[in-house]
Design a protein that fits this description.
Distance between the termini: 55 Å
Radius of gyration: 26 Å
Number of helices: 22
Structural class: mainly alpha
Strand content: under 5%
Length: 488
């Protein structure tokens, strides 16, 4: 898609480098490092090899509210949530997937069936009979048992308490603790939910969306769903504090993932007009490409006096750019400024990624210049967008020059940019050039990403260049040895 230079709004933001957008003072722009880790902005870290075919995605939270309930993953790419006692490390996973790792042995299907039958019978000697089975349950086995009990609406409270005593390694397990909340919800036992949540709060146990798994069962009945939501909200409000707020976060997010935005709005109506709640709604809409609905939510926030933040706008900007709605994106930047909400590093990156995808690197560099002129350091993903943009245009020498400049100016991303450059050359069938890139960075004392190094070495070996592979291995080993010696 070509950008029309005759369009007035595009001329304002692209031809005339953002005279309006960047009239802000440098101090008014928050630095990336100052953003809470719970936000969608990932903290720069040693990234093996970044894959940035898509525009950046962002996660949401109120910077003042720690996430206590964990969130899981979705198909929409995201960055890690905030770092707090109860937050998930999603470098923006929306749902936390069940872990396949296990402690103990997986119980057999027969043993699982026997356990479920014992729980169903509910005898006074349940715990002693479970002890007598002498079975070591894995997380996967427990997940299976709880899901069966929940689907059949069989109380699992006694089994849960037995697990916490007999398998203490699962005492703080988010999945297991979330599934017992789901179990109580299916049985309409909100007194037990309140007691459990209080206990979890005191022991710092985090929950995830599985805690509200019973709600989708009733999603076909709006009245019943609203009734259950009211009960959940009442319990979470009683719990109060950041734990209660985080529970509301997870509830809204789960409903958005299900596409039940009406119910998600209903949750907000029953609680409070909190920025982080609206951001989850907007993110949910944007994930589905519903930017018009997202903008309606934004306008609704403003109408009730809830001030948006840069995340709010970044969600919508990213969605608009992904759908080639540049006019609307430019108008939204104007609205962003009118709301006295300064753009951040991710705001710039959204447009840079979009322009690099279109091959408009000259205009993308205008955005980069303005970003740097305001004292904001580009994110690693921003550099990756330029490198991949050059490769898309088959301007490989320019990509190399960009990496060299980056290594001089931004030391922290040198390893990543060089490794990415080598990886891209290898993927296009040029292992010799990739080897030269890795050798260059090793000479500068930069350690290549190990996976990239191994892939290049194997590619050289398979293509009959054993000598080059050995030289690369020798150089890499020498660097590692030298680094180890320096650290002693």
């Amino acid at each position: 898609m070509e950008i029309s230079r005759n369009n007035p709004s595009l001329r304002l933001f692209f031809r005339n480098p953002l005279s309006l957008l960047f009239s802000l003072s440098p101090k008014s722009l928050p630095s990336l490092s100052s953003a809470p880790q719970s936000l969608l902005l990932p903290k720069p870290c040693p990234i093996s090899i970044l894959s940035f075919h898509q525009l950046p995605t962002i996660s949401c939270s109120d910077s003042s509210t720690p996430f206590i309930f964990l969130t899981g993953s979705s198909s929409f790419r995201s960055t890690p949530y905030p770092s707090s006692l109860f937050s998930s490390r999603h470098s923006f996973r929306c749902f936390r997937h069940f872990s396949s790792s296990s402690s103990g042995l997986n119980a057999s299907a027969k043993q699982i069936s026997e356990i479920i039958n014992l729980i169903r019978s509910g005898g006074n000697d349940l715990e002693s009979k479970l002890d007598g089975m002498n079975v070591s349950l894995s997380e996967l086995s427990l997940n299976t048992i709880f899901r069966i009990l929940n689907s059949q609406k069989i109380s699992a409270l006694r089994f849960f308490n037995w697990i916490r005593q007999s398998h203490p390694q699962f005492y703080h397990n988010s999945d297991i603790c979330s599934l017992i909340i789901d179990n109580c919800g299916r049985l309409d036992d909100f007194d037990s939910i309140f007691n459990l949540l209080n206990d979890f709060r005191l022991h710092g146990i985090s929950l995830n969306q599985k805690a509200f798994g019973y709600l989708p069962v009733m999603i076909s009945s709006k009245a019943e769903t609203k009734k259950s939501i009211c009960k959940v909200v009442e319990v979470l409000n009683k719990i109060g504090g950041s734990y209660g707020v985080s529970g509301i976060h997870v509830l809204i997010e789960m409903l958005c993932v299900l596409g039940s935005f009406e119910m998600a709005n209903y949750v907000i109506a029953k609680t409070e007009k909190r920025l982080s709640y609206y951001n989850i709604l907007i993110r949910g809409r944007c994930r589905r490409g519903n930017f018009e609905e997202a903008k309606k939510i934004l306008n609704g926030m403003l109408n009730v006096g809830c001030k948006p933040n840069s995340q709010t706008f970044n969600y919508i900007l990213s969605c608009l750019c992904k759908n080639d709605k540049t006019d609307e994106a430019c108008q939204l930047v104007e609205q962003m400024l009118e709301s006295v909400c300064p753009p951040d590093a991710l705001t710039f990156e959204i447009f840079i990624c979009y322009l690099c995808r279109l091959g408009k690197l000259d205009v993308a560099f205008e955005w980069l210049d303005k970003l740097e002129s305001r004292g904001i350091e580009p994110r690693p993903t921003t550099h990756a967008a330029f490198i991949k943009g050059y490769f898309k245009l088959q301007q490989h020498q320019e990509a190399h020059r960009y990496v060299i400049l980056c290594s001089d100016k931004y030391k922290k991303v040198s390893n990543m940019t060089y490794s990415l450059l080598a990886s891209l050359h290898r993927k296009r069938g040029k292992p010799v050039i990739a080897q030269n890139i890795l050798s260059e960075m090793i000479e500068k004392g930069l350690k290549p990403n190990f996976a990239v190094y191994m892939n290049v070495k194997k590619h050289l070996q398979k293509s009959g260049r054993e000598d080059m592979a050995r030289n690369l291995e020798s150089s890499f080993s020498s660097l590692i040895s030298q680094t180890s010696a320096d650290n002693r």
